[in-house]
Design a protein that fits this description.
alpha+beta; 14-stranded mixed sheet; 5 helices
């Protein structure tokens, strides 16, 4: 006996079809044009359905790297955050003052190094040259004076020995003063020593490290999300003190999700990364989504002897909110058997969105321009093979199914064939070989 819930689901789906078909009737009430393709019989891998759970692709409990007081906490549970978005801000006033002082010292050392690298200014060199010339003049005068004093002392003896010694001492002093100014001029021309510049460079590098350390400390006081996702837990609040390592918030990435199914050991050898899988979720009214096998975890549960298999599925969004949520129950259909014969139809022929997938079958048509009546055939989906998918139901190989225009049809409606797509589908990949990733069925 059919349950009231099943009757209501069938009635709602039929009403939806009637609304779409009424809105799509061509002017004048003529038969709508559709594109059809034949159902074919082909060998595909056997499938089996397993129970799975929706899980996020990434999950992170983001904590604080430093101690501090929370002064801003702009997020709430359920909020979407982007990569590098601020989750919490800790107090940084003291460190910012230290950073300002360190940056000022850094600029001072940078300018000192620049001064050394630029060498002596032309005016400084000219000043040193002038001092050297003046010292040279005093040296020549003192030397001449010494020679006269020495001659007078030796020949005429009209000066004392002390006066002669004083003239000699002044000559020597003038000579040394000239040598000093000459050396100073040479230093001004040569500029700073290489070792002095190297010391200034080392001091500058050390100060840059101090500034970078303070900046890094300040950046650690801003706790950010490392990837785009949704906040699922808060672990602090504005005004609280957090220590290094304390959790702040938990973020999950669910733009894509993984459905983790437990697969028995006898079926695991048939699974390959990239193999197409069908995912049905009870929370979405048994909607069927298409995913692909991402990985098989190479470690079985010691009690159940099952292996976790992750199926990657692209999430859907309604009003900017994700449809697939972590923790949802799912059923995953995987290609886990040997090749067997099955009826396949193009994926575009499958209409999803109701209580079960359906296809529209048009009897008595074979070529462009033929007219026939569209029949609704509920089906169950199996393994995919290229652009086609295996189905079971009231459908036989060779029958024509609608691939374009099927979203607006109603059961028993007359249609006209616009085109027949009869290209053969590629053969299914043998076990151990990966098939090309096909397009998804019509999700209507």
């Amino acid at each position: 006996m059919t349950s009231p819930i099943a009757l209501r689901s069938t009635a709602v789906f039929a009403a939806t079809l009637l609304v779409h078909s009424a809105a799509a009737q061509p002017p004048g009430g003529g038969a709508p044009s559709v594109v059809v393709a034949p159902a074919i019989e082909q060998s595909v891998a056997a499938t089996q359905t397993f129970v799975g759970t929706v899980q996020p692709v990434r999950r992170a409990t983001i904590g604080s790297a430093v101690n501090g007081r929370v002064v801003e906490f702009p997020i709430e549970e359920g909020d979407r955050v982007e990569a590098k978005q601020t989750l919490a801000q800790l107090l940084t006033e003291t460190i910012e003052l230290e950073l300002a002082a360190a940056e000022a010292e850094l600029e001072l050392r940078r300018q000192r190094l620049a001064e050394l690298r630029n060498g002596s200014r032309p005016e400084e060199i000219e000043q040193a040259r002038a001092r050297m010339a003046a010292a040279d003049a005093r040296r020549e005068f003192a030397e001449a004076r010494r020679q006269r004093a020495d001659a007078v002392y030796r020949q005429e003896r009209i000066i004392s020995e002390d006066e002669r010694d004083e003239a000699v001492a002044l000559s020597i002093e003038a000579q040394e003063a000239y040598l000093e100014t000459k050396a100073a001029y040479a230093l001004a021309v040569a500029g700073p020593r290489v070792e002095t510049i190297a010391q200034a460079e080392a001091e500058l590098a050390g100060q840059e490290a101090v500034v970078q350390r303070l900046r890094d400390q300040i950046s650690k006081h801003t706790i950010i999300a490392r990837f785009a996702g949704y906040v699922v837990a808060e672990h602090t609040e504005e005004g609280e003190w957090v220590n290094s390592g304390d959790p702040v918030a938990e973020v999950v990435a669910i733009d894509e999700v993984e459905v983790v199914a437990q697969v028995t050991e006898g079926n695991v050898p048939f699974l390959r990364p990239g193999a197409e899988a069908l995912v049905r979720l009870a929370a979405l009214g048994q909607r069927t989504l298409t995913g692909e096998v991402a990985v098989t975890i190479p470690q079985a549960d010691s009690r159940s002897r099952t292996f976790p298999v992750k199926v990657r599925v692209k999430n859907e969004f309604v009003d900017s909110r994700p449809v697939l949520l972590p923790g949802m129950l799912a059923r995953v259909t995987l290609p886990v058997g040997v090749q067997q014969r099955a009826v396949l139809v193009p994926k575009d022929a499958v209409v999803l969105g109701g209580s079960s997938p359906v296809v529209f079958v048009v009897g008595g048509v074979r070529a462009e321009g033929d007219q026939g009546e569209a029949r609704l055939a509920p089906v169950e989906l199996g393994a995919a093979s290229g652009s086609r998918i295996a189905v079971t139901g009231q459908l036989a190989a060779g029958e024509m199914v609608v691939t374009e225009g099927n979203e607006r049809l109603r059961p028993g409606q007359a249609v006209r064939v616009l085109r027949v797509d009869d290209k053969p589908a590629p053969q299914a990949a043998a076990p151990g070989r990966q098939a090309a990733t096909p397009s998804e069925p019509n999700a209507r």
